[in-house]
Each structure stands twice: as structure tokens, then as C-alpha cells.
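2 proteins. here.
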Amino acid sequence: MNHPLILMAHVLFGVLCLVGSLWVFVDTLNARAGTVARIRAVSVSVAMAMWIAYLIAGYWYIDFYAADKALILKGPWPWAHDFVMEAKEHLVIMLLLLATYLPIATQGRLASSRSARSLVLWTSGLVFGLALTADSFGALIGMGVKVALAVK
């Protein structure tokens, strides 16, 4: 697999995590006995998408990021690595943990328990917010490479 396809797969699974967490959030707002199975299934897909995105990112980071990092650090946006990539690495660990916890959180009595729904709403909302932030940070890192190449 070449560099752009790996990066595109990483983004694709990250966006699936993001969209899935929003789906879980909205479905949980209207949780009924008939929707609980779907909420649980989508929450599992959120966790799976996040893990796949994480594993793809690890492969990309080990095999390809050194060249991008060197470009970013020599370019006009060194903060795209110094701050944004470093922050994203830490943020993604929280995202991975919360996405992994989401299917566990959905095991409560969602149709009848307000506190069970609240737990899922908070968890899926945090996954959504962190995934959106991680996606935005990835865009800034990509722009760091592009502006460095534009200067060359």
C-alpha cells in the first residue's frame, strides 16, 4: 500500500468513528426498546473504526512520518509538528479509550434508565468532539507539509 492510500484509509476510519459516535448520540437521545440493539451495534463499529484508524496511523507514523516531520520542521509551520502532532498523539489515546468504552457503556438499560442514557450521551459526545479535534489536527499537520513544500 502506498503513502496516500494509507493516509486516506486512516482518515476514512477516523471519519467513520466520528460519524458513528454522532449516530450513537442521536439514537440515544431517542432510545427505545427497538433502537437499543442498533445503538449497541453502532457503538461496536465506532470502537472498531477507531482501532483500525489507530493501527493504520501507527504504521504510517513508523514508515512515513519521519520525512513529513522533517519537511514540517524546516518549513514555515514548525508548530504543526511541535504542538499539533504532539497534542494529537495524546488526545488520540483518550479518544481510543473512550471509543473502546462506548460499547461497554451501551450495555445499560438505555430504554428505561436516564442515567444509562446520560453515560452513553457523555461518552459518545466526548468521542465525537475528540474525533473532530483529531481530524482538524490532522488537517493542520497535512497543511504543515504542504506549506513546507510550497516554500521549496
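next one coming up
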Amino acid sequence: MDEPIPVKSVGTTFEILQAISREGPIRFSDLAAKLDLPKSTVYDHLRSLRRLGYVHETDDGYQVSFEFLLLGDRRRHKTDLFMNARREMEELATETGEHASLVVEEGGTGRAIYTIKGESPVEFKVYDGTQSHLGSTAPGRTILANLPRDRVNAVLDEHGVPEEGPETDREELFSALEDVRDAGYAVDEGSAIHGMNGVGVPIIDRQGTVRGAISVYGPVGRMSPDRMNGDLVGALREKANIIELNLDLTN
């Protein structure tokens, strides 16, 4: 459940940033019209964000700056999972020809921190940093399946059962997660992205803690059940094993 933001002005700042990120470049008049805020408030926040270097004003309007890219990439390079998985993800995308992603759990949601296109991917927008319900994607489901049950309940209390998934209630989801945990991988048949199928496997360290997951997604025509449950699972497990070994050696 959403909790009130203690410092309301911070919430206002990020409401403005999200609007600019989605719509930008955008002119002040158009931005103010989209937000249920006084124009003076929007103007003062924009002026502050410009001075801090997080927003730029161009001939076409306001745009978020690449300072956010610096913040995210700095955070990513301090993550041992990313540093140990990057090369394997690049090889996975090359070998499969599809989109390969590295996903972690953050605040009870899935966060794609690295996505690589293969040589023949369908063109669809996948941004590093994309957030999703853990139960709605193949990699997210493998993470959720390997979390302690009380942690899963806490995630579902906060975020609910995903509307995109095939399960309609918590018990159905728990049953599906048991199957995922037993199988060691999850398949997504068009739940997360219309017309796209995917398969994911977890990354589990030597302490038995799920650190994240890797996945491959592609168009339905190329991602048949036989391929997903056969060659792709094998390729993902091979890469996951290497990543897990590298994590164990560096920790």
C-alpha cells in the first residue's frame, strides 16, 4: 500500500521529473497543464532542478539531464552481481540472438539493471532500470520463487498479485511459484509483453540467497515452448552457473 511521503515537496519534485522523463522535451505550458499543480510551484521546482543540473531547457522544452544516467551507472558498477554477470549477458545475447536481461529485486519489485540486444531481436523498448512486478515476468518469478515465504507475503501485501499474470489470487500464485522453484526456471508466455515470450533462471549464491535472475525474451514466433524449455533453459543455466561461481570467488 502506498504510504504518504513525509516531505511533500520531494514527491512534487519527482512527479515533475517523471512527467518530463515520459513526455520530454516538453514546454513549460504543456508540463504545467499535465500536472495538477500551481504554475508557480512547477516553475520554482524547474528552476531548482536546472540549477542542480538535473533538468535542462532546450529550444524544444525541458528535458531531464544525463546526470541520472551517471547516478544509475555508478550504482550499477558498485553491484557485484552486475560486474560478474556483464560478460555472460553479452555472450547470452549473442548466442541466442534475443534480448538478454539481468534483473534484481529492489523494494519488492523487479528492476532490470542490464539488457543486451541480440543480433536479430524484435524492436521493442526495454530501458535499463525498467521496473516490474516480480510475479509478472520470467526472471521476476524465479526471484519470487526463491525468496522466503514471509518475504513473498510482504511483497504481495505491498504490491498485490500481478494483473498481467495467469494467477488470479495469492494461493494460485504460491502454487505456481512452487512449480518454478522445483523446475529451477520460469516461462512467461506473453504476460509481461504482448507478443513476446521469455524464460528466466535465478542466480543463487553459496549461502542459498537469490541474488537476481537472468532471462531471454523474444517474439512468440521464435520462442516456442520447445525452445524455451530446451535450448534456452540450458543456455541460461550455463551462464547462471558461471555467474554464481564468479560471485562465490569474489565474496
